[in-house]
Specification:
The complex is a heterodimer of chains A (254) and B (255). Chain A has eleven helices and no strands. With 254 residues, chain A is an all-alpha fold. The chains are: A mainly alpha (254), B mainly alpha (255).
Chain lengths: 254, 255
């Protein structure tokens, strides 16, 4: 057990070192969602005048930006894994006397940790733009969901990295999460969306996660009903994608 | 001059066609955003001050085209930076061709790719129910303005690559392409933008390019809007081609 914890903490330290020693690599993942947030609220802010938004437009799209940051972080984990595969470092990692599922857990847990960076930056930008403080309870739930979602995206990105074994597959890693968060109530509530988008959003489990992150900002009240649905959606996605990633990891090199 | 330009343009086009992943960021990302924006913001056409349009998809097509062309510019920059990193650029410089043909060859290929990008989004719009109010002539004007603007954005990517000589650094400008785009009237009418985006958008050449692309799609052709778009696109292209040649000469002067 203690050996497993040491492996996990080594992965966490490596992820943290990457942020501290190569800050240029982390900047796009932090900056891009912030640019989207400021840009979208500046461009589409007038949409908030439509009946259906239960509050300020910036507050409405801030949770989307936070999940977008988690998506970028998760995808970056896959890109880093592909880089490690290309450079041969991953082969040496596979020789380590550890379970492969633990290696994967190390990767995705480091993604979860790194996702707090863009989320916190986005939260600060949002507060500066006038978004109301959502409260500690709402923030704890939001951070749990954001970190969990980053881990889920990291599972998907690792799956792609293990399949294609090249950094050139990066667009494929990014696009999966991007589609998942875009076809939700990201920009507008279901009542204001086109029918086709509303239908997809209702079926999309990521929408439940987004609603869970958003509840503290808009409408501003945290409910158990919204929270458990988000947690169940996250757990289901984690089980499916995590299971597939573990299977792919076990098959690697055999 | 013409033969090396043609040969280098042909090479760039062949390279692009052999790497389908090259087109993914340019076509898929803007298509996804187009779908999400259209589905999410379709009711905004009811806002006071929004121009009369057949549908929000028609209005957003110009934004998707502009976004795709900007991403094309980033791709040009990455391609040139990779050639510098791999040493191929040095071999090109050593070859017996006018050196400016290296810039013009790449930009000629960018013009052709930009034409394909614009045609793709027009076709996509038509498939999903958009209408080009300006008719066939209007569609041709959209192709013209788009191809020239795409060449100009390619010039931005190329000058950055010649200056930075590093593909990662050029890739790092990707988010800034969105900053420039958001600070324009590409996505939403100028009158409905929030401060300070509305103020910046009024001076952003991208606003004029986007309006020049949009006008023939959402209304019968207005010569003023299209001409403004054409002049802005030509201005960006001339300025960025000049800057690329300037940076190329600067690079040649270095030991």
């Amino acid at each position: 057990m203690s050996a497993s914890i040491r492996v996990l903490s080594a992965f966490q330290r490596r992820a943290l070192n990457e942020v501290l020693r190569v800050p240029g690599g982390a900047i796009p993942g932090v900056l891009a969602p912030a640019i989207f947030l400021i840009g979208l609220s500046g461009v589409f802010g007038a949409a908030g005048n439509l009946r259906g938004y239960e509050g300020d437009f910036t507050a409405y799209i801030l949770p989307f930006g936070m999940l977008q940051g988690a998506t970028f972080t998760g995808a970056a984990t896959g890109v880093n894994l592909a880089r490690d595969i290309e450079q041969g470092w991953f082969d040496r990692l596979l020789l380590a006397p550890q379970r492969r599922s633990l290696l994967l857990l190390g990767l995705v847990s480091s993604a979860a940790l790194r996702a707090t960076l863009p989320a916190t930056f986005l939260l600060l930008v949002g507060l500066l733009l006038g978004v109301s403080w959502p409260g500690i309870e709402a923030l704890v739930i939001a951070y749990v969901l954001i970190m969990g979602f980053a881990a889920v995206v990291a599972c998907y990105a690792s799956l792609v990295a293990l399949r294609f074994r090249t950094q050139q597959a990066a667009p494929l890693m990014q696009i999966g999460g991007f589609i998942a968060i875009l076809f939700t109530t990201a920009y507008a509530p279901l009542t204001l969306q086109s029918t086709w988008l509303a239908d997809i959003a209702r079926l999309n489990p990521v929408n439940k996660i987004l609603e869970g992150v958003r509840q503290g900002f808009v409408p501003g009240t945290v409910t158990w009903g919204t929270t458990w649905q988000a947690l169940v959606a996250l757990a289901a996605m984690g089980l499916v994608l995590g299971g597939l990633a573990v299977r792919s990891m076990r098959r690697t090199g055999r | 001059m013409i033969r090396p330009v043609r040969a280098l343009a042909g090479r760039a086009l062949r390279n692009a066609s052999r790497r389908p992943q090259f087109f993914v960021p340019m076509l898929v990302f803007p298509s996804l955003l187009l779908a999400a924006n259209t589905g999410g913001f379709s009711r905004t056409t009811q806002l006071p001050g929004f121009p009369k349009v057949h549908g929000f998809l028609d209005y957003q097509l110009a934004a998707a085209i502009t976004q795709s062309l900007l991403l094309g510019g980033v791709s040009v920059g990455i391609a040139v930076a990779l050639e510098i990193e791999s040493g191929f650029f040095d071999r090109l410089i050593a070859s017996p061709i006018p050196r400016t043909s290296i810039v013009f060859g790449r930009l000629a290929a960018t013009f052709c790719i930009a034409l394909l990008q614009v045609a793709f989004f027009l076709a996509l719009g038509l498939v999903f129910g958009a209408e080009v109010q300006g008719g066939v002539g209007g569609a041709l004007l959209v192709l013209l303005v788009g191809a020239i603007a795409g060449t100009g954005f390619g010039g931005i990517g190329m000058s950055l690559a010649l200056r930075a000589r590093n593909a990662s650094l050029v890739q790092g400008i990707f988010p800034f392409a969105f900053v420039i785009l958001f600070l324009s009237s590409a996505f939403f009418p100028m009158d409905l933008l929030q401060a300070p985006a509305d103020w910046v958008a009024a001076y952003n050449p991208l606003s004029y390019i986007a309006e020049g692309l949009r006008n023939p799609i959402i209304a019968p052709v207005d010569a003023g809007a299209v001409l403004d778009g054409l002049v802005a696109a030509l201005g960006v292209t001339a300025a960025m081609t000049g800057l690329s040649v300037f940076f190329l000469r600067g690079r040649l002067r270095e030991p």
